[in-house]
Amino acid sequence: IDSLKLIPNFEIIDFVIEHGYRMGRIGVQSHQILIDEVNIYKWLDQEYYHLPKVYIGGMDLNIESDRRFRRQPKRKLTPPELMAKLSPLLRVDSLWIRSGIIEYHEKVESRGPKGYFFLDEVEALLTNLCNDPSHLIVNPNARLQVEGNIMGEGMVDLTVQYPLNDSSHSYSMEGRMDG
């Protein structure tokens, strides 16, 4: 895929007002997506989506949050809970993102300063993203490794591990920041 752009076609304020509580808005854009070693026949015959290798080049992630509204009282789902809800079965062995940018914009009351944060030169590797119970017996942990520059200055290095078959929703995270 040469390029892909997924951007909601609404203004964040319209969406928040419609739902009555704080809601984020996420836009994703990628300049290149490569999927390697896909077995289409298995997809069609068994409704089992296995992506051994996915490469995303130049992914831009833009996140907006409007803090002028109250939070929704409902608890947010963790990554393992989201994976368990997916149907049909999905397995991504490795997803590699190169040259990414993550921007976070926060809207607040008009008197206060607006929040803004970004990571650039993001390199990320996600391994073993899966909701197949037979595979989770063998390898239950999804792992995310992220490196990037904070606000164009310092460097961040973060590793998160999620046991996808753990009902306690535990995870481990370690990282470091320099600069």
What does this structure look like?
The chain has helices at residues 12-19, 40-46, 79-85, 133-138, and strands at residues 4-6, 25-30, 32-36, 48-57, 60-66, 89-107, 115-130, 141-150, 154-163, 172-178. The chain is globular, with a radius of gyration of 18 Å. It has 179 residues and is an alpha+beta fold. Strands 1, 2, 3, 4, 5, 6, 7, 8, 9 and 10 form a ten-stranded mixed sheet that branches. The model has no long low-confidence stretch (mean pLDDT 83). It is 16% helix and 52% strand. A hairpin with a 3-residue loop joins strand 8 and strand 9 (154-163). It contains four helices and ten strands.
In short:
It contains four helices and ten strands, in the order E-H-E-E-H-E-E-H-E-E-H-E-E-E. The protein is of the alpha+beta class and 179 residues long. Strands 1, 2, 3, 4, 5, 6, 7, 8, 9 and 10 form a ten-stranded mixed beta sheet that branches.
Give a topology summary.
Blueprint: E1 4-6, H1 12-19, E2 25-30, E3 32-36, H2 40-46, E4 48-57, E5 60-66, H3 79-85, E6 89-107, E7 115-130, H4 133-138, E8 141-150, E9 154-163, E10 172-178
Parallel strand pairs: 4-6, 5-6
Antiparallel strand pairs: 1-2, 2-5, 3-4, 6-7, 7-8, 8-9, 9-10
